[in-house]
Specification:
With 759 residues, the protein is of the alpha/beta class. The protein has three domains: 15-205, no CATH class; 295-538, Vaccinia Virus protein VP39 (Rossmann fold, 3-Layer(aba) Sandwich), CATH 3.40.50; 571-685 and 695-755, no CATH class. β6, α13 (321-334) and β7 (345-348) form a beta-alpha-beta unit. Residues 602-614, 622-640, 731-746 have a biased composition (Polar residues). S-adenosyl-L-methionine binds at residue 351.
């Protein structure tokens, strides 16, 4: 008789896994004690509670066991020598046998992953049953023993039914050894369950692993519509004609039904067991409907939402050909109106093998995508000077992550070209700190490099991790690094990036972050896997609003106004001169019998037609005065297209408009002269409001009421036929214009006497 060995305890066990009849089982445990003879017919082959019939008897092909053993060998947990019960040899990283069938490959990975989950339990069974000590098998074959033992106990220790598949002698030898020891192996398993009060062996798993395992069996199928091959309406029509009925939400999925995803409009959701029915519609075989996890479709949909009217897309990270095809189809659909300039989707494939690149290209071609190009270089070696990336405005970054938010990691890793080295950590429910730090370091490098492209307008960052170190912390740190780098290098503000608000809305009945939350996170549940999404957009160039005074001061500092006019005063001088003119006008209010024409500069030349027009204006003013009309201040503003407001030639144009009849009344000029309406009397001068913007100074002519001097006019027999006052205006020489005395603020008597004509 072999003594029962103590089996190490397991943590995180559920209380529901404890049986109420533990005491009775312990009492009867002596009936399960094994004999040294593995083929003793007196011992029941399988305990009564483990015996089943008609289930799991087919087993798996030999090549699946061989592939699963190689995967387990490369990923198993290697314990320290002092605590090592079973040795699997020193060799790791063994090459995987070639299995072309995708379904067989997935089955082998699932078997290896489940074996990793129960590695400690399986080792205890091999030691307790003396299988490991009595069988003459080398250590490097113990990986094959582990995976076949797990499948053996999963089939309730019933022999598999061979179907004439390829025979691998190594596999058959291990199978024969297990069949000889099936009684002792089954009894050892029963003792382990009794010792730990386990209703089933799943109860020995950590709680997080057990929860994911339960969810994985009920996850619905997500499939996106390939718009390059079909449309959403067409696919829905085919499904309804095949007997499918559409429901409103995922919670209502039952039987042969489907619904539309609440976040992505091009995704349809089906119950998990309808995969075979979907193949019968030929939608999957015709590549019109593509089954893919929802977490892989959120990134392409976010990219399509922020993509500009023009520009290419660069994809970097860990993804499959399905994700590339989805991105390319969305871009092509958005820009289908512009057939001449279709955006290109560039894909970095530096970490792919030649076979993986070929598979990716085949998948993209099968989807009907013609706008995809592969880039073999490493992403870190690419920069903005690359000619291929001159039009890239969006970068979709899906880095390698821990896949800790995925309930079915094996299926996800295989479909999305994930890292199989994470299988051992995922089988235990947590990622080793060293592996997590390595993943975060690479994620930081990728996102930092993506933010360095000056023409990139947005970066879409997506993971399937539940660790903040891979999600929010990576993004926030990248934004801080980019801002510090731009400030250090003196880049403009628009070189910085900011977090864009979440592009996906949560359903009304779902609990999620506020709509202003820049991060979009889905927690793993029975309805979907978890994921994280962030969109970083480049800040637009700020609109600087400057006051007119600031614009003028900046222009003066740069010498811009000097080129406009050398005689143009600065703003303060102009206001000072205007104030002096206003004071002079007010001081003349006490002398209503003086008529003076004020000008900024003396005119050099004046034609006879301009003299006539100006004289006609003065005559009209005098006639209004003689009729008893109030004395007003006549203000004329001359439009001056020349920069300098003190140009004398433009002042001449104010009086040289088109010829008019002699008896006509002066009107507003449509080309050179703008006459403002009469101002109030001089006793109450009007102060015009200050303009909001700086304007070019313009010449102004102020006409005051006339003053009569004795013997001032010539006799009435003037040849012009006009009144004496009007004839005087015609005789007056331009040089006789009365200047304004700036020192006194008015007109001096000497100046008036000098300007008086002599007859």
């Amino acid at each position: 008789m072999v003594k029962n060995k103590n089996i190490g305890g397991h943590s995180n066990r559920s209380s529901t896994c404890k049986t109420k009849k533990a005491s009775s089982k312990v009492a009867n445990s002596k009936d399960l004690t094994l004999l040294d003879d593995p083929v003793d017919s007196d011992i029941p082959a399988v305990p009564p509670e483990l015996q089943i019939t008609g289930q799991g008897q087919l087993g798996l092909p030999d090549k699946v066991y061989l592939l699963a053993s190689a995967i387990f060998q490369n990923n198993h947990l290697e314990k320290p020598a002092a605590h090592r019960l079973v040795s699997y040899g020193k060799e790791r990283g063994v090459p995987l046998p070639e299995v072309k069938d995708e379904e067989m490959q997935r089955t082998a990975y699932e078997l290896a992953f489940n074996t990793l989950k129960y590695q400690e339990l399986l080792e205890d069974i091999m030691i307790d049953s003396c299988f490991y000590l009595t069988q003459p098998m080398p250590d490097d074959q113990m990986s094959l023993v582990a995976v076949m033992l797990h499948d053996f106990q999963d089939r309730k220790f019933l022999p598999r039914e061979r179907q004439g598949d390829e025979i691998i002698q190594e596999v058959r030898d291990v199978e024969n050894y297990l069949l000889k020891f099936k009684t002792k192996l089954a009894a050892s398993l029963a003792r382990c369950r009794i010792k730990h009060d386990l209703v089933s062996i799943e109860c020995i798993l950590p709680e997080s692993v057990k929860t994911k395992q339960e969810r994985s069996s009920s996850l619905p199928l997500y499939a996106w519509v390939n718009t390059l091959k079909s449309s959403l309406d067409e696919v829905q029509g085919v499904l309804k004609s095949a007997g499918f009925s559409q429901v409103k939400s995922i919670g209502e999925l039952e039987g042969q039904t489907f619904c539309q995803d609440p976040h992505c409009g091009d995704i349809l959701v089906f119950p998990a067991q309808l995969k075979a029915q979907l193949y019968s519609t030929k939608l999957l075989s015709d590549h019109k409907l593509i089954i893919q996890d929802k977490s892989c479709s959120l990134g392409p949909n976010a990219m399509c939402s922020v993509s500009p009217e023009e520009g290419d897309v660069l994809m970097v990270g860990c993804f499959s050909g399905l994700t590339v095809a989805h991105t390319a189809s969305l871009i092509a659909e958005k820009h289908k109106a512009n057939s001449k300039s279709q955006p290109t989707v560039y894909v970095c494939v530096s970490d792919r093998t030649d076979a993986q690149r070929e598979d990716l290209q085949k998948a993209v071609s099968a989807m009907g995508c013609k706008n995809v190009k592969l880039i073999p270089e490493v992403f870190q070696s690419l920069d903005s000077s690359d000619k291929r990336l001159q039009k890239v405005h969006i970068i979709v970054l899906t880095p390698k992550c821990s896949v800790s938010a995925v309930s079915n990691p094996v299926e996800y890793i295989l479909q999305e070209n994930g890292d199989t080295d994470l299988l051992q950590d995922l089988s235990q429910g947590s990622i080793a700190q060293s592996k997590l730090e390595a993943l975060v370091a690479q994620q930081r490098k990728d996102i930092d490099h993506a933010l360095k492209f000056p023409k990139v307008l947005a970066v879409v960052y997506s993971t399937c991790s539940s660790y903040p170190e891979e999600n929010e912390e990576v993004v926030n740190r990248a934004l801080e690094q980019a801002k510090a780098r731009s400030e250090q290098e003196g880049e403009p503000k628009q070189a910085n990036f900011r977090l864009s608000p979440s592009l996906f809305k949560y359903p009304d009945n779902a609990e999620g972050p506020e709509e202003t939350d820049p991060f979009f996170m889905l927690e793993p549940s029975e309805q979907s896997n978890g994921c994280f999404l962030a969109v970083l957009t480049r800040e637009s160039e700020p609109v600087v609003t400057e006051a007119p005074q600031e614009v003028l001061a900046r222009a003066n500092a740069k010498g811009i106004l000097d080129r406009i006019g050398s005689n143009q005063p600065i703003r303060k001088e102009h206001h000072g001169h205007t104030n002096r003119m206003a004071k002079a006008a007010i001081s003349r209010a006490s002398q209503p019998h003086i008529s003076v024409s004020l000008q900024y500069k003396h005119q050099e030349t004046k034609s006879s037609s301009s003299t006539t027009l100006c004289g006609h204006q003065e005559f009209t003013n005098r006639r209004q005065l003689s009729q008893g009309k109030p004395k007003t201040l006549r203000l004329q503003t001359i439009k001056n297209p020349v920069s300098s407001p003190f140009s004398s030639s433009k002042q001449e144009s104010s009086c040289s408009s088109s010829p008019k009849p002699e008896n006509s009344t002066p009107t507003k000029s449509t080309t050179t002269t703008t006459n403002l309406r009469s101002a109030p009397p001089l006793a109450t001068p009007v102060v015009r409001p200050r303009r909001a913007q700086q304007e070019v100074l313009k010449p102004v002519v102020l006409v005051l009421p006339p003053v009569h001097f004795p013997n001032f006019f010539p006799p009435q027999h003037s040849r012009t036929g006009f009144s004496p006052s009007f004839s005087y205006s015609k005789w007056r020489n331009p040089s006789q214009t009365v200047p304004l005395s700036r020192s006194s603020g008015g007109l001096s008597r000497d100046t008036l006497m000098k300007s008086r004509p002599l007859f």
